[in-house]
Amino acid sequence: MSIRDIYNDYFEAFEVAFDSDAWEPIGEFFAEDAIYDAPRGGRVEGRDAILAQFKGSLDQFDRQFPLKRRIEVIESEVVEEGDYLKIPGNIHYSLPGAPSLVFYMEEEAWFADGRIQKLVDTIPSAEAQKMMNYVQEHLGAGG
Asked: For residues 87 and 71, is the Cβ–Cβ distance under 8 A?
């Protein structure tokens, strides 16, 4: 199984966890001592801390939108080399009565023994500013 296959399985499980708010099942995709660098939460270490970070981040941002976000992977820019995978894409959010929010993000994953050892999500500063402006204008300061 390629690391892209493992990642795709992880992504599907992540979406199930997002819908159910049951995060434990995606823990199997991470090494016990995995590291996650989150755009809004900084670095967290350890599988349980990563799962808590996912839940907290999604509760604070994604769940402010009544419609589920859509992720559009830019397949032509995906990089898979050895134990490294980079998935770039656009994330789409919608609010009734407001323009859509679309921003660019990259997710990088390093694998060891078939599990994610390190995960880094990067949102360029201009895209992060676009997000903050949208939150201020359409969700209020609490987003």
From this structure: no
